[in-house]
Specification:
By secondary structure, the protein is an alpha/beta fold. It contains ten helices and 13 strands. A seven-stranded parallel β-sheet has the order 3-2-1-4-5-6-11, with helices on both faces.
């Protein structure tokens, strides 16, 4: 099975690469903008590809002829998207259109990563067929990209929506809320954390496993892939502190609107995972079990 990954330098991309690079019966091509940042270089299994350039996309697809595409690359900084909607649309919508058109030509099974931010957070947790109502430029861009996939001429497609992906890998350009929480608590300085946003954080390895299950089973349609445990961001930080034996007395609760962030966040998302569990055999780890994976990797990475 020839699998092409976009965004291979990102957190999910690196976890997919780790899981697939030595897998039997899989020929993997990792792609990202710029140089390969894998700790163990991929060599011929990596190609630089700017997904906002249709010519580059077509050239890579024509050379590799992927049977499966796992599209993880995106502009995911919610406030940056709000402040630069043109860049957000180019990277999240236009680029997805280029990839979908190339996948149509090659008959690829197209697996698109999306987000809980397509929902307004008024009635979470959500099922796959609940009505989207994004509150931000980022959320709208991901919904628009979903619609490109759904309305395409792709013979097979799947959308994998997820929530707050956390984990660690070498050379990441962005942190995530769990690493931020651990680092902030270790400094022992006062931090403000919102208590009016509720999420179900997702271990990157579990999300990668869900995507690979979709690919190997040829599954189609929309799947919700998150962690199983729901919590406020405040509780998330407190649970990180408790797990790593860090003092959480420095944490004070605040409301989202006090932070002055450019993008509005949905108050309560979360996913109902029944479909992914039943159809795919998806079995994500609980939050503390995920933190144990993270802790072991931190020891390995030094």
């Amino acid at each position: 099975m020839r699998i092409l990954i976009t965004g291979s330098n990102g957190l999910l991309g690196q976890k997919l690469v780790t899981a697939l690079r030595d897998a039997s019966a899989v020929d993997m091509l990792a792609t990202s903008r710029g140089e390969d940042r894998s700790p163990d270089p991929l060599g011929s299994h990596y190609r630089a590809m700017d997904i906002t350039q249709a010519g580059e996309v077509d050239a890579v697809f024509d050379a590799f002829k992927p049977e499966v595409v796992i599209h993880t690359a995106a502009m995911t900084n919610v406030d940056a998207c709000e402040l630069d909607p043109v860049a957000c649309r180019l990277q999240n919508v236009t680029a997805t259109e280029y990839l979908v058109r190339a996948a149509e030509r090659h008959g690829s099974h197209f697996i698109h990563l999306s987000t809980d931010f397509i929902f307004d957070g008024e009635n979470g947790p959500y099922r796959e067929d609940d009505e989207p109502a994004p509150l931000s430029v980022y959320g709208q861009s991901k919904l628009d990209a979903e619609r490109i996939v759904i309305d395409s001429r792709l013979s097979r497609w799947a959308i994998a929506r997820t929530i707050i992906v956390y984990g660690i890998a070498e050379g990441l350009s962005r942190s995530n809320v769990v690493l931020w929480a651990k680092g902030a608590l270790e400094k022992g300085q006062p931090i403000k954390v919102v208590d009016d946003q509720w999420r179900m954080p997702t271990l990157a390895e579990d999300l990668a496993d869900g995507c690979i299950r979709i690919a190997k089973q040829g599954a189609t349609g929309i799947y919700h892939l998150s962690g199983p445990d729901g919590m406020s961001i405040l509780e998330l930080v407190e649970r990180v502190g408790a797990y790593f034996h860090l003092d959480t007395s420095v944490v004070s609760a605040v409301k989202s609107d006090s932070l002055g962030q450019p993008a509005k966040r949905p108050p309560r998302t979360g996913f109902i995972l029944d479909k992914a569990r039943t159809d795919l055999g998806y079995s994500p780890r609980g939050f503390e079990a995920g933190l144990e994976v993270l802790r072991a990797q931190m020891v390995t990475l030094g």
